[in-house]
Design a protein that fits this description.
about 425 residues
């Protein structure tokens, strides 16, 4: 029988995993609707806005979420925890005000730097969602820290319901991609207000200039790492659209959506394991336990990728119009990229044991810089094939770097026998998936 604490941990992990799946997987759930109402050229334009949102959200987040976990986690009293959370929310509020001002007054000036013929109204609507992003992320992180998974799930579900309802209504009225952007803006503003009210009641406005400087100093390298990661999670689509137009990247974008499914499906495991692995390391036999669960997570990741390799082609055929079916041949290679990312996050414990986050930043800069150079060289020459080659090479380098330096810092006795078997099975399953398409 499971004790009460174990049941609570499992229930919270399930709720967090489902919440994140809903928030991040909304575009996948709505995929049949999007592709029914949007032409490939429109969907390609939407993907450019998604890529732009990814990089801007990294800039605006500024690593505050990671800083919040770190500084609240190290605080001794509930008053100190509340003050650290209040300081992070204050910084997020300042960023929100500045970023909204930029999008309100300068959207037209930003447009020339975006490929795909994006309109000023589309960029402005996206800017609203981006501006309030930190006012959502920080209070949600506070809910996680204070172990209120049920409230976290309820608010996440509420946002998803608003966004889906408005998107479907405005799509049926012919708004095109503006319907998706407008629904995102409305739902984000409503949820940001609710979350800020909840946190404000608990933490009030408290801050120390010295402590805010510490938060920003810690968050800086994390922000740089995230910005560098843009080369492996958006630069490919940006260059493809710039070189060949938005229609060409529509199928590529569909394949990316399906390749992200394994990451979402493994969220319950990673949300449970990643916060625990540092405390487990200090326990008796902590290195063996860490090695065991890292390999377990790797096997789960491989199984998920193999399952998508088998079923993904059928899902693409049944959920999207024929104009998007070129995504089937692209999917296996993007699944490989996804797997390499997941493995690098499972076998990187040693890189995070020190107080400084500079090692992670440097490793990300090296691998992402390598990927950026390859993308700039290969995309104009080989289009999608060039992008895939660059992404696989850079992600493989990133995984090796994190594994190598992690083992140098903290050697873990990994046993890869079952993992090799799982990889073989996944390759065979993916091959069958391609043959059945």
């Amino acid at each position: 029988m499971l004790n009460r604490r174990t049941k609570s941990i499992l229930n919270q992990s399930a709720l967090y995993g489902l919440s994140i799946f809903l928030m991040k997987g909304i575009s996948l759930v709505m995929l049949p609707v999007y592709t029914s109402y949007l032409m490939p050229s429109e969907y390609g334009r939407l993907e450019i806005l998604v890529v732009f949102a990814n990089i801007v959200s990294i800039v605006l987040a500024f690593g505050l979420g990671a800083a919040l976990y770190r500084f609240v986690g190290l605080a001794d009293s509930i008053e100190d925890k509340q003050q650290r959370a209040a300081e992070c929310l204050l910084v997020a509020g300042i960023i929100a005000l500045l970023s909204y001002t930029i999008f309100h007054f300068f959207s037209r000036d930003i447009l020339p730097y975006l490929p795909g013929n994006i309109t000023e109204n589309e960029l402005y609507l996206l800017g609203i969602s981006l501006a309030v992003g930190g006012l959502i992320d920080i209070p949600l992180a506070w809910l996680r820290i204070t172990e209120r998974a049920a409230l976290f799930f309820a608010i996440s579900m509420f946002q998803v319901l608003i966004q889906v309802s408005l998107t479907f209504y405005w799509l049926t009225n012919g708004w095109g991609i503006s319907s998706i952007l407008a629904s995102g803006a409305v739902s984000s503003v409503i949820v940001a207000i609710i979350l800020c009210v909840i946190q404000f009641k608990e933490t009030k406005i408290k801050f120390s200039i010295k402590q805010i400087k510490s938060i920003l100093t810690y968050a800086g390298p994390i922000f740089i790492s995230g910005a560098a990661a843009f080369t492996l999670s958006g630069m490919d689509r940006w260059l493809l659209a710039e070189q060949f137009g938005t229609t060409e990247i529509a199928s590529y974008a569909i394949a990316i959506k399906f390749a992200l499914i394994p990451t979402l499906l493994t969220q319950p495991f990673t949300l449970w394991w990643h916060p625990k692995r540092f405390s487990v390391l200090k326990q008796h036999d902590g290195k063996n336990i860490n090695a065991h669960f890292a390999v377990v997570g790797a096997i789960i990741s491989v199984i998920m990728c193999g399952g998508l390799g088998l079923l993904g082609p059928l899902l693409i055929q049944h959920l999207t119009p024929i104009a998007y079916h070129n995504a089937i041949g692209i999917l296996p290679w993007l699944l490989l990229c996804t797997l390499l990312k997941m493995l690098s996050e499972l076998f990187n414990l040693g890189c995070f044991v020190e107080k400084s986050s500079r090692l992670q930043m440097n490793l990300n800069l090296v691998s992402c810089g390598f990927g950026a150079v390859l993308l700039v060289i290969l995309v104009p020459l080989f289009m999608i094939e060039g992008a895939l080659t660059a992404l696989i090479s850079a992600n493989a380098l990133r995984m090796w770097l994190f594994y190598y330096y992690s083992q140098k810092k903290v050697y873990l006795p990994y046993k890869f026998g079952y993992l090799y078997s799982a990889i073989s099975a996944a390759v065979i399953a993916t091959w069958f998936g391609q043959m059945s398409a």
